[in-house]
Every structure is written in C-alpha cells, then in structure tokens.
Specification:
alpha/beta; 6-stranded mixed sheet; 325 residues; disordered N terminus; Rossmann fold; 11 helices
C-alpha cells in the first residue's frame, strides 16, 4: 500500500499533553440482569496506540460503543477529544474515524461507490475533494485494484479494508478499530499494521480492540485488559510487561557448578542451552538477583553474560485474566 497524499482539509491540533484523547470515569452499563461494564476509569493518552484486550464478553465492544455515543451508559461520564458525550459529539465526531463491529455497505454498489457515499457525508470535504480523498483512502488500504468490484463479491478481508478506508477518508485525530484484521491473510495483516504505524507517526491516536495478542504487542504502546466488565490492568505496555518480572539467563561454561551454588542459595535454577536460568515469572522467588550473582562470583563460577527474561503479552494476559470462566 502506498502512503496517502496529504489532504487539503485542515485538522485541529491534537489534545495537549495533559488531555487524553478519550476518558471515562466510573462508567457502567447494565443490560437487564447483565452488567457489561462495571465502574471503569480509563484514560486513552493522546498520540498512543491503545490496545483493548479481554476475553469474549469482557465488555470491550460495549465500552467502545459508549465512547462513540452509540450506546448510552447506565451511569458514569465519557469524554471524547475533550468533549462530553453525548452533548459534545457533533463537535468531536468529525475528528473521529471508526470501524466497529464490522463495516456495513450497500452490497450492489462497488467499493469506490460505497466509499464515495461515505465521503459525501464528511462535513470537511468539499465536492471537489471527494474523488481524490476516496482514491487516496482506497490506495492506502490496498483496495485500489478492486475498487470497481461490487461489495457483495468482496471477501471478508476486503470488506474490513473498505471499512478501514471509510474511517480514514479524511484526516482524523482519533481512529477506533474493532478487530481490524478480522478475515485478513498474513500479508493483509501486515499492511493494516503499517497503516496503524503510519497513523501513530502522524500523531493520530489509535484505539484498537483485538483478540490477537501478537497484533496488539506489535503495534500498541498502551493496553487495557478487561475481565467480566471490570478493568484489571492498564498502562504503558512495556511497563506492564516489566511488572511481570521474568527470570535471569546466566551464561556460564560451568553449568553444574552454577547450579550447585544457586541451589545452595535457595534459588530455583535449571540448566539451559548456554548456561542456567534462574527463577520464573515471580520476582520474589528466591534471593534477590544481586545476591545470586555475587554468590557465583565468590564461588569462582565464570559468568559470561546476564540477560533478564521478559514475558510476552500472552503471558501477561493469561496471568491477569486467569480464572475467567
């Protein structure tokens, strides 16, 4: 996919450093006897790629719908680009592009015709800007070659691409994507990741909901994890991964001697390809790392390298959602 040319449409400056792109406080949504979202406080930092994670039924889509004014909260407050929802939606929504719960287009129209209909509803596009904006959006998501085909003949992945093109037909400050790579092959998934990376470089905030942990880990700067309607973790992705401490890989040619010393300190250790591994994902497991290293040095064990293991997002997600039914 080629990078879309810059639009002539003016874009308002992004929120200031203290103003998140989206904010919810004590947000709650009840459907009959089901509490879908239960007292969530959350900030989506401006300029971030924010991943929304959680098992099925955790409340992700309901939360996104409340952010966009598509569902009214039972209680709590929502702000979108510094404006209260729902009263501030008319001012905020022109700066927001969204692909939520799959795109909806006319089956007998072509991809280009469908996207042109979307573009005519954009208040910031003049009549003469519609065609170049549509062409640029189609090219950006890799649909330029299939733009003349009827929508009913599109694959699921192509439909997802057209929905993303609709979200990007004009410059945005916030783009909300619910399962954007659903139905895409690996090449298509890489292209969508490239679009998200390009948006971030442009200063656009991206709120991304996905069940693919590898996708989130590869593109997101921040994450929030939901479980049964509650927020169980949120923040910068790297800090959350660092908080789930890994073990240490110790490079040594004297594996037997290192194991003997480490076991003598009360640490859990095992042999590895290039030495030994101490501990697991629990930082309090055994003596502190400096004591272990000092014990090896005192015993004359040659240490050629130290490397801290870092858990991946799947490990983090499993640990903080374990016990979910």
């Amino acid at each position: 996919m080629n990078e879309a040319p810059a639009s002539t449409t003016a874009v308002r400056p992004p929120p200031g450093p203290e103003e998140p792109a989206a904010r919810v406080r004590d947000l709650r949504k009840v459907f009959g006897r089901l509490t879908a979202v239960d007292g969530i406080d959350l900030d989506v930092p401006a300029g971030s790629v924010f991943g929304m994670l959680g098992p099925n039924g955790s409340g992700k889509t309901t939360l996104i719908r409340m952010l966009l004014g598509l569902t009214r909260p039972t209680s709590g407050t929502v702000e979108l680009l510094g404006r209260r929802v729902p009263d501030g939606l008319p001012a905020a929504l022109p700066d927001v592009g969204a692909l939520v719960e799959g795109p909806g287009f006319h089956p007998f129209l072509s991809g280009r015709e469908n996207l042109r209909r979307v573009a005519t509803l954009e208040p910031r596009l003049s009549a003469r800007e519609i065609r170049p904006a549509v062409d640029a959006a189609l090219d950006r998501v890799g649909l330029a070659g299939a733009a003349g085909r009827r929508y009913r003949g599109y694959s699921l992945g192509m439909k997802q691409r057209l929905g993303l093109a609709a979200a990007l037909v004009v410059p945005r400050r916030l783009v909300v994507l619910d399962e954007p790579t659903n139905g895409l092959d690996p090449a298509g998934t890489r292209e969508i990741r490239a679009v998200v990376a390009d948006l971030r470089r442009s200063g656009v905030t991206v709120l991304l909901s996905s069940h693919l942990l590898s996708e989130v880990e590869s593109v997101c700067t921040h994450v929030a994890v939901l479980k049964r309607g509650t927020l169980v973790a949120s923040g910068e992705l790297q800090r959350l991964l660092d908080a789930v401490a890994g073990g240490w890989e110790i490079g040594t040619t004297d594996v037997d001697g290192a194991l003997r010393v480490l076991h003598g300190t009360g640490a859990r250790a095992r042999a590895d390809d290039d030495g030994v591994v101490v501990g697991g994902v629990v930082v309090e497991d055994g003596p502190p790392a400096p004591e272990l290293f000092a014990a090896l040095v005192r015993a004359g064990i040659p240490v050629h390298g130290l490397r801290r293991q870092r858990p991946d997002l799947e490990t983090l997600f499993t640990r903080i959602t374990e016990g979910d039914s």
